[in-house]
Amino acid sequence: MRYWLLKTEPDVFSFDDLKKRAKKTEPWNGVRNYQVRNMMRDDMKVGDLGFIYHSSCEVPGVAGVVRISSEARPDPTQFDPESEYYDKGSKKEDPRWLLIDVTWEADFKDFVTLTALRDEPRLADLITLRRGNRLSVTPVEKKHFDIICKMGGAKLK
DNA sequence: GCCAACGTTGGC
DNA sequence: GCCAACGTTGGC
């Protein structure tokens, strides 16, 4: 099993929004980066765990834990001219962009701020903390996953 | 195939 | 609002 970190702007879609969704599940649409698409296609498996990370907001940080609940499948928004994610270059028979579904898995007792992540020396090589990192989905090593779960007081099953 | 210009991300 | 970093685009 692998572990992941998924960035989202909480003003657009937050961890709390996910909990309010039917079946607490949401299609993770709008990914328009080839590296991330390939990771979703090749490396993500149903049952993997991930963090929801809030970015571009007052207090960035990790909000909670989700489970990857689908294989990669075509992102329907690429075919919708009304969508901000519309890609007129993508063909139905050969979709350019994929998504996976995420399902709520566990709450944190405490939100884990970016500052707290940076202050933890054992997380020094966490990809998300690397200078200039811009990928909206990154792999997380198990040891890092466990540390962050502990920091947040995750109520894992 | 190179690389400058441009656009986006995201912390501060 | 600024700006560093980096992916993408497009001219050549």
From TrEMBL:
The record, for Pfam families, names: EVE
Per the record, the domain of life is Bacteria
Q: Which residues form the EVE domain?
A: 2-151
Q: Which SUPFAM superfamilies match?
A: PUA domain-like
Where are the annotated segments for Disordered? 70-91
Database matches in Gene3D superfamilies: ph1033 like domains
Alphabetized InterPro entries for the sequence: 5hmC_binding (IPR052181), EVE_domain (IPR002740), PUA-like_sf (IPR015947), THYN1-like_EVE (IPR047197)
Recorded hits in PANTHER family, A to Z, give: THYMOCYTE NUCLEAR PROTEIN 1
The name of this protein is Putative RNA-binding protein with PUA-like domain
Q: Which organism is it from?
A: Roseimicrobium gellanilyticum
